Every structure is written in C-alpha cells, then in structure tokens.
C-alpha cells in the first residue's frame, strides 16, 4: 500500500522533521521559524520548501502519502467489495500510519492540542480523508435512492469512529492495542450501516437470520444458537 | 430560540456586514482589507473589531449566536427527550439561520467555495457544532457501553446529514424547501441510530443483544460480530 516505504524516504526530509519537532518541543511551535529548523538540520531554506509547502506541513509529514494510499486503495476496489467494509478498511490505513511511529504520533498529538493553528490544519486533513471516503461511496451508491446522502453520512460516521479510537490510543500514550480499538469502533458503524442495516431486515426474510441473546449468555451457547440458525453444525 | 432578534441587532454591525460583502463580491475576499470595509461603512477600525475578531468572522456573522442558541437548547433538554431526536432538532437551528436570509447565505456559499481560508474557517465552525452535539450525547449516554463512541459517531452523522441538505438547498439558490430537505436527511440518521436501531428492537435494550446476519455470511464473521456486540474479544 505504501508509495514510499520508510526505508527509502529521503534522509533530508526525516532530518527536517526531527529538527522541527525538537524545536517545537523546546521553544514552542509559534516561536520556531523555518529558519531555525533548517539551521538545526544543517540544510538550506529551499530544501525545506522542496519537501514541505509550509511550517504546518512538517507537523503532519505523512498525511499526503496516506491520502494517496487511501485513494489508490479505494480505486483498486472491485464490484464484490462491500462498500462500507471497504471504507472501514481504507480508514484503517490512517490508523496504521499513526501506529507505525507511536512516540512521534503521541508527541504530535500533544503539540496539536496546544496550537489552534495546527488543530485547524488537522481539521482540513480530516476533511480530505472524509471526502475521499465519501467520493468512493457516492460512486458505489450511484443510482440508489439517497445514495449521495448515505455516502456522506457513512463517510462522516467512519471518520468519527476512527478518530474516537485513534484519540483513545493516543491518550494511552500509544500503549493500547490500536488495531483492536479501531476494529471495535468501526464495528459500531458497520452494525448501523453495513450489510446488517435495518433496511435489509424487512422483505429479505429468506436470507437474513436474527439472533437474540441475553448479554450475559456464555459465548459458546450463542455460537451454538447461531450455528443452528444458519443451518450448519 | 434567538437571543438577538434581527430587529434589534445593532445597525452598525449590519452595516459592516453589508459593506464587507459588497467589497468581497466586487474586488474579491483577499483583496479587501478591514480598512476598506470600515471606510465604506463609514465607521472606525475599532468599531469593526468590537463586533468581529477578524476579517473571516464578518463572513459568518451569525454562527456565534447560533452556537449559543444550540448550547442553550441542548442544556434545556429533559430526561424524556430522546437524545438522537434532540440533536437532530438542535441541528435544525443551524439550517434555520441559513434559511432566514437565503440571498445572503447563497452569496456566502459561493464566496466560501472560492476562498480556501474561508473553507478552513467554516470547517472549524462545523467542528464546534459537532462537538456541542457530541458533548450533549456523551452526557446522555454516560454509563452506557460505548457511550462516548456512539455519541461521537451520531454527532458526526447528524452534522453530515444536515450539511448534505444545506448544500443541496444552497445549490438550488435557496429555492428548494430547506426544512423538508433537512427533515429527510436527518430521518436517515434516525433510522440508523435512533429508536429504530437494531439494539432497541427487543425492547430490553440493556441486557439483550440482537444480531442480524445474512444467512450466507461466513460463521467466523457472525461470531466476530457477536463477540463485539457482547463486548468480549
């Protein structure tokens, strides 16, 4: 999925990110200039702007790659891919980017919380992810009643669930299991909008199974019930 | 609901908004300075900043009032108010603000589409509405399993549905029925998350789990869904 594996990422780019974060943490984000960053990294201003359009971009150095990965992943979808499942999988790419480098992600999370300009930048990045997911869903739902509306709502719900899991993980200082948290969060969206959505219940009696269980029922008993309902043993 | 009816809104504030929009449309947003605006309105710079912290704020003069209205509306909720219905009604306040002045809203929509800085500003406003809805839901869902997650996801879905309807209305140049569009859009969210949601079907929401699955779903997938619904992994 990655267009530019970490191993071959330009070392100068990494050096700029490292220098920038060292200064942001020491002096504060607002008090650090691009000149300070390039001086510490030992490169010229033009090198900085070759990699980053602005100071804000150095705070989020991997989002452009991740957005490109997400777009490519969605473009590679087939007709057989269940659309809601597919956008959930696309959202997981973002979490994976954060989880690749927990210490950096946690550091940035703390920085972003303190600097309003960075929060605004982050909102615009989140918006671009949401639009990528919505565009894919709009295409898949084309011709369906309320296709565009459903696409927009599901994309927003997926992003909100993903970000809920991501924030929990960041607040655990990257210690919790990020994948498990996001699986659980996206599961909530899928149960509201996915193949099990209420609009399939009516009229599709033949190929749908409904199982009701008490929450404290032992799992083996629930599974047994499911098996018999599905007609498999 | 309105804290400051149009009739008693300070005329100087209205004059500044009118002057600003005249200049934004004639010269472009970026090319217009606060000095240009106050000169046309015939007031001093200090008067401008008494009403608006920045040039961006004059583009969205009613959002602060609307946010305050929304917060007050949610704070006035009772225990009997169905939470998803309540946040849908809160979102309607935003649409009503736009619909109060269709010509101005359509003009601003076109302006915002052209100016990236204003789009970023708008995202931050939308984010504040979403947080207000999510905070209310978090409180109402306190103690419930996945309460915070559900609150965040539903707030995002409500905002996305509202904005979908709002954009359709703006693209119709304010001619369509805004209320009908937003009712329909919010109806989709309510059918996914509201009283009709699967976990409420059995009536005893707290200790009963309902799982709906396609008959041809692989068993492992059904079991996984059961596990997540039971809260065990």
What is the global morphology of chain A? elongated
Rg of chain A, alpha carbons:
22 Å
Number of domains of chain A: 3
Number of strands of chain A: 1
Instruction: Classify the oligomer.
Output: homodimer
- CATH hierarchy: architecture of the largest domain in chain A: Orthogonal Bundle
Instruction: Indicate the low-confidence ranges of chain A by residue numbers.
Output: 196-206
CATH topology of the largest domain in chain A: Tetracycline Repressor, domain 2
Instruction: List the helices and strands of chain A in order.
Output: HHHHHHHHHHEH
In CATH terms, the superfamily of the largest domain in chain A is: Tetracycline Repressor, domain 2
Strand portion of chain A, in percent? Answer: under 5%
Summarize the amount of helix of chain A as a percent range.
55-70%
Q: Mean pLDDT score of chain A, rounded?
A: 86
User: Kindly, what is the distance between the CA atoms of the first and last residues of chain A, rounded to a whole number of angstroms?
Assistant: 38 Å
């Amino acid at each position: 999925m990655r267009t530019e594996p970490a191993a071959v990422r330009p070392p100068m780019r990494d050096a700029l990110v490292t220098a920038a974060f060292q200064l942001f943490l020491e002096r504060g984000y607002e008090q650090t200039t691009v000149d300070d960053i390039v001086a510490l990294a030992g490169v010229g201003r033009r090198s900085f702007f070759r990699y980053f359009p602005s100071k804000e971009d150095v705070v989020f150095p991997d989002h452009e790659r991740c957005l490109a990965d997400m777009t490519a992943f969605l473009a590679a979808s087939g007709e057989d891919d269940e659309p809601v499942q597919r956008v959930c999988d696309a959202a997981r790419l973002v979490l994976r980017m954060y989880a690749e480098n927990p210490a950096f992600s946690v550091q940035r999370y703390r920085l972003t919380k303190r600097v309003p300009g960075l929060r605004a930048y982050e909102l615009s990045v989140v918006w671009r992810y949401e639009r990528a997911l919505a565009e894919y869903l709009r295409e898949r739902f084309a011709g369906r009643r309320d296709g565009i509306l459903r696409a927009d709502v599901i994309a927003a719900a997926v992003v909100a669930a993903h970000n809920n899991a991501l924030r929990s993980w960041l607040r655990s200082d990257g210690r919790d299991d990020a994948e498990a948290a996001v699986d659980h969060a996206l599961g909530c969206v899928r149960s509201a909008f996915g193949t099990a959505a209420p609009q399939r219940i009516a009229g599709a009696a033949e190929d749908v199974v409904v199982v009701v269980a008490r929450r404290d029922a032992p799992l083996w008993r629930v599974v047994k019930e499911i098996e018999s309902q599905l007609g498999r043993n």
